[in-house]
Amino acid sequence: MEMDYTQYTPAPGTEYRLIEESDLAGVLHICAEEGWHSYTEDRQTAWHVFTAPGVHTIVARKEHGVVGFCQMQSDGVIQAHLSLIAVAREHRRQGIGRYLLAKAFQASGGKRVDLVTETAEGFYASFKGYRLPGFRIYPDE
User: Fold this and answer.
1) Handedness of CA 29, 62, 123, 111 (dihedral sign)
2) Of 140, 89, 83, which Cα lies nearest the Cα of 110?
3) What is the dihedral of CA 33, 54, 75, 40, to 10 degrees?
4) How far apart are CA 62 and CA 18, in angstroms?
C-alpha cells in the first residue's frame, strides 16, 4: 500500500511520537487486551521488540496515557511491513489508528507497506493499495 501521510490529521488531544520506555506499560496493557500474550510475558523482551534496529514503534498518547500504538519494520528505503497496530477499544473510530499507521510509515522511510490481517479488512481496504495473497510461516511447528 502506498501512503501519503500528509492527508491524515491527528485526533484532537492526541500526541503521536516514537515509543519511550515510560510508554511500555500502556503498550503492554493494550497487547493484553488484544490477547497478544507473547508480548506481555517479559517486559525486557517486549522493549527490545519495539525498539530493535529497523523497527519504528509509534504511540498515541492522551492525558491519561497510551491509547494506541503501531509497530512497523522497514529497510528504510523501499519495503515496510506493518507488524502490529492496536487502539484501545474506548478510543477507536476517532482516526487514531489511521494516523498511527501514517506516522509509522513516515518514520519507516519505505515506499510501500505490506501486512497480514485476520481482522480489520475494511480498515486496510480504505487505504490506496491492493490485496495480495500471503502466508504466515511458523518454522517450528
Assistant:
1) negative
2) 83
3) -20
4) 14
Q: Give the tens place of pLDDT for each residue, 5-41.
A: 556 677 788 999 999 999 999 999 999 999 999 999 9
The kind and range of the H/E element at 68 are strand 65-74
In the chain, what are the domains?
Answer: 5-125 (3.40.630.30)
Amino acid letter for position 11 = A
**pTM for this model (two decimals):** 0.80
Closest CA to 46 of 36, 54, 61: 36
Tell me the one-letter amino acid at 82: L
Here the cell at position 135 is 502466508
